[in-house]
Amino acid sequence: MTFLTGATGYMGRRLAAELIRRGHSVTVLVRKGSKGKAPPGCAVVVGDALDAATYREQVTRGCTFVHLVGVAHPSPTKGAQFRAIDLVSIQAAVAAAQFAGVRHFVYVSVAHPAPVMKDYIAVRSEGEALIRAAGLSATILRPWYVLGPGHWWPVALKPLYWLMELIPGTQESARRLGLVTLAQMVTALANAVDRPNDGVRVIEAPEIKAVART
Questions:
Q1: Buried residues in 118-157 as b, exposed as e (16+ CB within 10 A)
Q2: 148-157 pLDDT per residue, tens
């Protein structure tokens, strides 16, 4: 059993389809009036991702909880939105997971440190801290940027990444802040659901790419 928030979004729809293809039973959280947007083949729970009380009783005990809610197209100008949506939704998700007694929690964070997007990194780091403080067994994935439909502009930076990986002083940062594809993220997320772990496991961009190849 998998409970998925953010199922109608950039990664969520594709992950739901992949989990169903792998034989998982998937329940998705959608807002009131959005049941028609739920991915095909999923059970649907109507609730507010910012309020655990609206959906926590529908989370199955012992399931895997995957949290993908967040502001679309993050940018340095969206600090207030990150705190109002990304942070509040992970607070609610952790509360709901604790209430239900989930087996495994999967969270998409972000690579850090980095020279930009400080507000986004701060909020996602707070999300990681909440998961640890709750004592949840979890897999935390830390991509920097996920390439896919409508998210292609960083492709122009690939020659710069290639050069940085050749220089010892910038090699580690180039790999940690490397670009991953949407397909790689979906595969890494699905693999995390397939293979729940005890404690907290952090998967950085190089491992996201490697896991997707296995």
A1: ebbbebbebbbebbeeeebbbbbbbbbbbbbeebeeeeee
A2: 776 545 555 5
